[in-house]
Design goal:
heterodimer, A: 79% helix, B: 200 residues, mainly alpha, 9 helices, elongated
């Protein structure tokens, strides 16, 4: 240990030696082979478990998702086609009612009343009953 | 050279020799192969690193059994995260960080679950009479009185031989904090040693 006295170095070395004894890893290949087998066992278990579960659900889920996407695509395509067709027809077909003759329904009554009033006053000025 | 020391050299040495470079490229090939789904390659990586991984975990948790659990959890995490690992990086550093995190998680879970039993779950004391055994017993007891981080730092440094930088990287603390923790842990253990000397 740098920067400490020799006495501390000795003590630290003794402590380190004891710590190494306390924390000594198991020796022997059998132990490590066994640990490796346990680790790989857990990985295979989790891996297979995950994939097996996923595999069980994945195929029907993928088919359902594909069908849904296809149906949504067809529906969108058709809706768009109809929309385009309508817009196209709307542009090409002349409107049956001229724009200027279109009267707002709320004003229609007022206009008829005014017309009747004018016609009536004209008839009256011509001496008709 | 054992697998464990070989792994340590690739982890710790900044300028590897030809042999280390070959081992490093072999390891990279194993990592790439494992990333492509080879179980054999991953098993080879486990074989190569399990001793060192155990040492990292053992330094952080309190018992051998917890260290085994943490090693298994750590390798499981590593396997799941393998796709995200860049093969150009040192695999050991990445793996030991995962091991340290798995160990810290386990320590936290243990604390929450059996806070009362924590002191009882310290390593088994050595009951033989004599100074060495008394020292070991006291040290074992003293280790449980250090903070988790101080204990981890002193074991990782003095027992497992990691540098301050590596320890900082593993535990997610600055290198200076690792140094300071080591200093305080040593001072605490030195006091214990002095007490044992005066008692005997």
């Amino acid at each position: 240990m740098r920067g400490l006295t020799t006495h501390n170095d000795d003590n630290d070395e003794e402590i380190a030696r004891e710590l190494r004894a306390i924390y000594a890893a198991p020796s022997g290949e059998i132990y490590w082979n066994d640990l490796e087998a346990r680790i790989m066992g857990r990985i295979v278990e989790v891996d297979l478990g995950w994939w097996a579960e996923l595999d069980r659900w994945a195929r029907p889920a993928l088919v359902a998702a594909a069908v849904l996407i296809l149906a949504a695509g067809v529906a969108m395509f058709r809706a768009r086609q109809v929309e385009t067709q309508t817009a196209y027809e709307h542009i090409l077909t002349p409107s049956p009612v001229p724009v200027e003759t279109v009267i707002r329904p709320t004003l229609e009554g007022d206009r008829e009343a005014s017309l009747r009033d004018v016609v009536g006053s004209k008839d009256r000025s011509n001496g008709r009953p | 050279m054992t697998a464990a020391t070989a792994v340590h050299s690739t982890f710790a040495m900044p300028s590897p020799s030809d042999g280390d470079q070959r081992k490093s490229s072999d390891e990279r090939a194993l990592v790439v192969s494992a990333q492509q789904g080879s179980g054999e390659a991953f098993a080879a990586l486990v074989r190569l690193h399990q001793r060192r991984a155990y040492a990292v975990c053992r330094a952080i948790v309190l018992t051998h059994e917890d260290a085994e659990d943490a090693v298994q959890e750590g390798f499981l995490h590593a396997f799941r995260a393998l796709d995200r690992f860049l093969p150009d990086q040192p695999f050991g550093a990445w793996l030991y960080r995962i091991m340290a995190n798995a160990s810290l998680d386990l320590v936290r879970r243990r604390k929450v679950r059996d806070a009362d039993e924590l002191s009882e779950s310290s390593p088994a004391p050595f009951r033989d009479p004599g100074e060495a055994d008394e020292l070991r017993r006291r040290l074992t007891e003293a280790l449980t009185r250090l903070t988790d981080r101080q204990r981890s730092v002193i074991v990782l440094h003095d027992v497992q031989g990691f540098t301050h930088g590596e320890i900082g990287s593993m535990l997610g603390i600055p290198e200076g904090t690792a140094r300071s923790d080591l200093h305080h842990a040593r001072a605490a253990l030195r006091r214990i040693l002095k007490d044992v000397r005066s008692d005997i």
